[in-house]
Structure to design on (1209 residues):
């Protein structure tokens, strides 16, 4: 046991998923979890910077945007977080089919959000407040939604990875760190939007073209 | 002996006993002589260093009320610096000499791990000192930024790479900053392009000039010595930042009135060439282009008109009115060989008549 | 044909390919939109440059092989970490390796390389300044050089800090490697394309903004500024990921019995540093990204005519860039604290206080950024609170100095080369620190801001806080890497040439700064009478350069012909010196157990670690000796 413990100590942190020892896997996941949360904290600072910049530059004004569309995309993103959570819970209980179904729904809703923001809201906003170059206000709007949409896209790519690996049966109730990581990342992106949505759509007096 | 046996037992079983320090001989008395030596040396060194800082001409001359207040702050800082520098350096050098390994000694140094009381002492005392310094610093700042109701207003416009000074109450624009002695002047700083910074070292205070009409910043100066100074841009603004200087002249109040009147009479007269010359001065053209043939940052204007020049791409171009117009509005499209593409565009800053005046002035420099 | 197997070679090839692909992509999209593929020429076409640069960096990471394991894992394959002896020999330093010691050395070599390049820029600049008047440089070249000198030095210091942390932290806490070895390699290799991009800005016209890149100047200057932004962005990403790894390693991989307050003091410094780089770096990335987008898409964050605000940039920028100086100095101060007890043969005085002071500096460091903006025209009510918070930094820094002096006091001090550099570092940093309060007090700062005084202050803190300790660390741990020690004679010469020259250099800078010399100017008025002092400063800069060349010669010579040193050369108590040098492949044959305090020099019979602990009682499912203890 001493020898095997020593070798575990030596190789226990390997990132691959081949170790048989359940305890070693748990230890590894704990470390990866800390890593993921550190990453999220770090990324959160960037979003906080954007959020603060919005209030610094625009103060009590906000861009004139379509309230209906904003509400719809926000609901879609929140719903996707719900399905993400379902997917994670289902794989914990060994329901692979359910996991795949919910992951697919999450991807669909995520894409829906992305399309709603980038392909519907952006052209609409451009007609209200001008394109990214029109004013500081429009620049802030496009930058905040753009950075968030970029994170949504990376999240969708991550979701696709776990979907295809899930189809190959890579995840078990005991071992699905990638699913957990993806879910946490997705919730994080969702939480960021919970701050961005009121900052852009609800707080302050709406201002159309110009400033 | 019994005590030392207890110490040895304690040392050997420390981690079992769950204690950090062991009872042993405290070394304060042992070091008493050394502490006295060090104290004397620290006092002497502090004295020497602070004398040195006091009498070296570290700062430029004091030419404003603000400078007096700031220099008082400086000398307080210098004293604290002298003491702390002496304290640490003397302690270090003394230890190095007295507690050095005199070759081949294998026994270790004295074993003491720390002293909470001492640590608290040298946390609290510096804390009090820095809070006190921040406090007098705040007072000093209030002193420096104090406003007087009858201050003279001057609008300072910074641009790449010169300054222009407007006296709104008198309708005077100048390239030299004239200031009356013993009267507060409030400078309303703004910039036409990038960030610049107004600094006359003899006045000590400094303030950035920001672009944008909503970002006018104020700086208050009360000159106390007549003389010639120089305002230099302190914030990197590209290109000829190093040469962004304009003269500052402090004169007696009566002389200042005379100067103002002479300036008021000088404006708005003369032909196209005179207007062009005045414009070239206020727009800062002459900080990069000479009129006497010397090469500054840009090509000289002397004998420029009507001659051919070689551009960096090898083509030759005749300097005519059209070329000069392009050179003012899109300066970096055609760069004369040997120069750099650093001139800012004056599009939108000059009217058509003004451009014509400038060109007329250039033409006149044969 | 070994050369063909070097990862770095393929990385560079792939970077070129990536750049071409990226640029072509932009041209292709433009053609699809019915526009001309190139605007003017590729050297001023910014979208082409930026997308090309970005794809080039990704290409490098792919080509060097830093992504291959992750791609495998994403495709559901297994990618076990290689273990056992690395058969590649010396060439493993030129390709992806997951061994933290190899990565540490890679970081170190890169840091020295970038340091030399940045130093070269400084020499060119100093030569120009030796006399008043413009002599060898054009204005735009000079302005570009100051920015490049600044940012390359900063990159070099960041990389050097990562070198120290990567090499030392896992060894000191008894881990076999970092928490995430792949991420570690990835973070290191990011620096190569990053540094290349920053340097390449020279070929796109340079950038006239200095390393601070303030808009609106940076929004209007030459296109080279985009490469500068992009390169810094990538190096910043590396710094973030490296910090993440260090924190996870310290939290999860300590040897049994190593409680937080039994860690070597350098680990505390690394932890504090990493907390800053993990979080604050995002803000410099954001600020640079905003200017980048302002240039690319005509956005208006900093354009006052369209509702923007130039001060916002400075807030975002300094929120990182002030704490960044603590990223630079905390590990250096950690090295000083680490080495002083060894060469004084005494315990570190007030271990806990020194450990906590690092953390305190890191945390207070987050609240002081606006002291860079006292004269910048920011909100005036912020001046006084930021003056108070700035002055507070002096308190924990003072605790360090006093504790160091108490560590020396009553010791048996030896002064081999590493100790010389430690002591030199203390004095130089002391003066750097003492010149801080006049800058932190608003009224005196109104005079000193943007003057050469700031330049002198910064060079004192950086040399004392990083360069001297870094040299000390190299002289000290070189035997651990190579099994040979560096020449004492050349080390002595290096120190005694560099130190007086350095004092002369910054002394001159302080002097002219107080007398009214602005920073970042290519030429100065001869009427100010600074010519003689500037000549002296330039000469000292060259002396420093010569001393660094001596160091470099020593480094290369000693690596091959140095005196063998396989054992505990400095009679240190630190874990890594309890095993033979060079360090074995997996650091420790079996996990050691911490049984004592790290710095109990002079305490008979005390040990810090037990290299061969008795096997613990096996408990199924819960291997207790693998769990790092938490708390004290």
């Amino acid at each position: 046991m001493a020898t095997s413990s020593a070798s575990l100590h030596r190789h226990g942190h390997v990132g691959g998923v081949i170790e048989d020892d359940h305890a070693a896997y748990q230890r590894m996941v704990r470390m990866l979890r800390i890593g993921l949360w550190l990453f999220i904290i770090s990324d959160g600072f960037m979003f906080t910077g954007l959020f603060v910049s919005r209030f610094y530059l625009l103060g009590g004004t906000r861009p004139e945007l379509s309230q209906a569309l904003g509400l719809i995309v926000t609901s879609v993103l929140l719903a996707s977080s719900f399905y993400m959570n379902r997917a994670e819970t289902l794989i914990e209980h060994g329901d692979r089919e359910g996991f795949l179904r919910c992951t697919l729904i999450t991807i669909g809703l995520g894409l829906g959000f992305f399309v709603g923001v980038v392909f519907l809201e952006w052209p609409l906003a451009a007609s209200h407040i001008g394109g990214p170059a029109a004013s500081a206000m429009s620049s802030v709007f496009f930058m905040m939604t753009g950075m968030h949409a970029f994170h949504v896209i990376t999240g969708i790519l991550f979701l696709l990875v776990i979907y295809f690996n899930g189809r190959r049966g890579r995840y078990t109730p005991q071992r699905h760190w990638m699913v957990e990581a993806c879910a946490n990342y997705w919730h994080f992106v969702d939480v960021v939007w919970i701050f961005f949505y009121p900052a852009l759509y609800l707080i302050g007096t709406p201002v159309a073209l110009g400033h | 002996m019994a005590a030392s046996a207890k110490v040895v037992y304690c040392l050997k079983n420390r981690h079992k006993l769950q204690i950090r320090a062991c009872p042993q001989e405290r070394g304060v008395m042992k070091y008493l002589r050394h502490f006295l030596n060090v104290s004397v040396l620290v006092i002497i060194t502090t004295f020497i260093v602070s004398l040195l800082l006091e009498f070296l001409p570290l700062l430029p001359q004091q030419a404003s009320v603000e400078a007096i207040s700031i220099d008082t702050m400086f000398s307080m800082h210098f004293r604290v610096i002298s003491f702390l520098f002496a304290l640490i350096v003397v302690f270090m050098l003394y230890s190095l000499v007295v507690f050095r390994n005199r070759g081949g000694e294998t026994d270790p140094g004295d074993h003491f791990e720390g002293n909470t009381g001492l640590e608290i002492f040298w946390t609290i005392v510096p804390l009090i000192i820095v809070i006190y310094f921040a406090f007098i610093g705040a007072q000093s700042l209030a002193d420096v930024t104090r406003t007087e109701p009858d201050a003279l207003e001057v609008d300072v416009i910074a641009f790449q790479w010169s300054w222009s000074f407007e006296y709104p109450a008198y309708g005077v624009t100048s390239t030299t900053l004239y200031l009356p002695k013993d009267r507060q002047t409030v400078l309303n700083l703004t910039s036409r392009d990038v960030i610049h910074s107004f600094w006359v070292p003899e006045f000590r205070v400094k303030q950035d000039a920001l672009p944008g009409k909503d970002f006018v910043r104020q700086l208050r100066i009360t000159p106390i010595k007549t003389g010639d100074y120089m305002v230099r841009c302190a914030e990197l603004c590209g290109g000829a930042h190093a040469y962004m200087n304009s003269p500052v002249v402090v004169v007696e109040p009566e002389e200042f009135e005379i100067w103002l009147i002479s300036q008021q009479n000088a404006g708005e007269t003369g032909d196209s060439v005179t207007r062009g010359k005045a414009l070239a001065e206020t727009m800062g053209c002459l900080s990069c282009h000479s009129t006497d043939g010397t090469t500054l940052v840009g090509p000289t204007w002397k004998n420029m008109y009507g001659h051919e020049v070689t551009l960096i791409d090898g083509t030759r171009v005749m300097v005519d009115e059209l070329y000069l117009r392009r050179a003012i509005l899109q300066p970096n499209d055609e760069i004369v060989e040997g120069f750099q593409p650093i001139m800012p565009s004056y599009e939108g800053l000059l009217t058509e008549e003004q451009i014509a005046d400038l060109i007329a002035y250039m033409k006149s420099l044969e | 044909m070994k050369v063909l197997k070097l990862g770095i070679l393929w990385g560079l090839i792939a970077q070129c390919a990536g750049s071409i692909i990226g640029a072509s992509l932009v041209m292709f999209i433009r053609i699809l939109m019915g526009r001309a593929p190139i605007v003017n020429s590729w050297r001023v076409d910014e979208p082409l440059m930026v997308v090309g640069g970005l794809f080039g960096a990704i290409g490098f990471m792919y080509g060097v092989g830093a992504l291959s394991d992750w791609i495998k894992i994403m495709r559901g394959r297994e990618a076990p970490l290689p273990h056992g002896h690395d058969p590649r020999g010396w060439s493993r330093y030129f390709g992806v390796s997951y061994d933290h010691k190899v990565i540490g050395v890679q970081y170190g070599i890169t840091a020295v390389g970038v340091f030399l390049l940045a130093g070269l820029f400084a020499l060119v600049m100093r030569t120009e300044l030796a006399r008043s008047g413009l002599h060898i440089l054009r204005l735009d070249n000079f302005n570009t050089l100051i920015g490049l000198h600044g940012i390359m030095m900063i990159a070099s210091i960041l990389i050097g800090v990562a070198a120290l942390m990567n090499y030392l932290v896992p060894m000191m806490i008894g881990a076999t490697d970092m928490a995430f070895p792949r991420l570690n390699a990835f973070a290191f290799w990011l620096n190569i394309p990053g540094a290349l991009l920053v340097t390449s800005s020279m070929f796109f016209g340079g950038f006239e903004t200095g390393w601070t890149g303030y808009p609106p100047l940076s929004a209007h200057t030459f296109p080279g500024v985009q490469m500068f932004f992009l390169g810094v962005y990538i190096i910043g990403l590396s710094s973030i990921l490296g910090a993440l790894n260090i924190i996870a390693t310290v939290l999860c991989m300590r040897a049994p019995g190593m409680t937080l307050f039994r860690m070597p003091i350098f680990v505390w410094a690394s932890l504090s540093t990493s907390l800053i780089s993990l979080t604050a770096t995002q803000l410099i990335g954001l600020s640079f990204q905003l200017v980048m987008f302002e240039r690319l898409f005509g956005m208006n964050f900093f354009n006052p005519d369209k509702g923007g605000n130039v001060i916002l940039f400075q807030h975002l920028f300094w929120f990182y860039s002030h704490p960044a100086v603590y990223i630079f100095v905390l590990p250096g101060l950690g090295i000083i604290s680490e080495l002083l007890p060894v060469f004084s043969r005494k315990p570190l005085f007030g271990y806990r206080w020194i450990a906590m002071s690092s953390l305190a500096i890191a945390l207070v460091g987050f609240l002081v950024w606006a002291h860079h903006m006292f004269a910048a025209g920011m909100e005036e009510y912020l001046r006084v609170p930021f003056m108070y918070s700035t002055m507070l930094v002096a308190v924990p820094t003072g605790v360090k100095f006093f504790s160091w002096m108490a560590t020396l006091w009553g010791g048996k001090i030896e002064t081999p080369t590493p100790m010389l550099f430690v002591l030199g570092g203390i004095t130089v940093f002391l003066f750097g620190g003492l010149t801080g309060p006049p800058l932190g007090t608003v009224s005196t700062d109104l005079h000193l801001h943007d003057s050469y005084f700031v330049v002198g202050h910064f060079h004192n803190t950086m040399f004392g806080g990083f360069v001297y300790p870094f040299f000390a660390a190299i002289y000290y741990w070189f035997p651990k890497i190579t099994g040979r020690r560096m020449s004492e004679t050349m080390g002595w010469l290096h120190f005694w040439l560099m130190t007086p020259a350095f004092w002369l250099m910054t002394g001159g800078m302080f002097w002219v700064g107080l007398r009214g010399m602005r920073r970042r100017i290519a030429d100065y008025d001869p009427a100010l009478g600074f010519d003689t002092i500037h000549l002296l400063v330039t000469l000292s800069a060259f002396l420093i350069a010569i001393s660094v060349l001596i160091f470099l010669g020593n480094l290369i010579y000693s690596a091959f012909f140095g005196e063998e040193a396989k054992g505990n050369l400095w009679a240190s108590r630190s874990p890594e010196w309890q095993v033979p040098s060079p360090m074995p492949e997996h650091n420790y044959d079996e996990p050691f157990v911490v049984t004592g305090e790290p710095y109990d020099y002079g305490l008979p019979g005390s040990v810090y670690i037990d290299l061969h602990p008795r096997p613990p009682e096996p408990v199924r499912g819960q291997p207790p000796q693998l769990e790092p203890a938490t708390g004290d």
Notes: Chains A and B do not touch (no CB pair under 8 Å). The radius of gyration of chain A is 21 Å.
